[in-house]
Amino acid sequence: MVYYPAPHRFADRERELALTIARQLGFAIERKRAETTAARLSALVESSDDAIIATDTDGIVTDWNSGAERLYGYGRKEMIGRPLMLLIPPDRQNEEREILARIRNGEHVEHFETVRLCKDGSSIPISLTVSPIADASGAIVGVSKIARDISERLRAQEQRELLLREMDHRVKNLFAIASSIVNLSAS
Length: 187
Fold this sequence. Notes:
Largest sheet: 5 strands, antiparallel
CATH superfamily of the largest domain: PAS domain
Structural class: alpha+beta
Helix content: 40-55%
Mean pLDDT: 87
Strand content: 15-25%
Order of helices and strands: HEEHHHEEEH
CATH architecture of the largest domain: 2-Layer Sandwich
Low-confidence stretches: none
């Protein structure tokens, strides 16, 4: 490094070099910030209990988090590059086509309850939220899908309905007994 004991006027070439170095440092700082942000977002997606899946606009899987592995039983490497239709029961294939058509139009689909297939062939009820992924120019380049297992909620709802029916039946029986007692007492 050169030090000048007195004020120094930098030549054009020296100023250009300093500006080039400053620009390169700025680019490096921005790249590091982007890498840090990407790593933080990746960790956030990976740590989710929900299945988070990215596909292209044709429904081919481009990303698959550990929540998706747990929910469906397929590993990340097994699903990347494969059609998401693999998870959709034959009688529900039109759902996916309709969802993709809506996404291509820029719409979002929230809390859509449906059924999907697991690797072992079993079916699982899910709540699905689907959003378009846009590039910097706003063009839709992919699809983000978040799926949540709603098996427990549906079981609890079914149990609650069963208990309500049972309670309704018992109340009707009590009224029938009370009515019979009243009729017997009146006779």
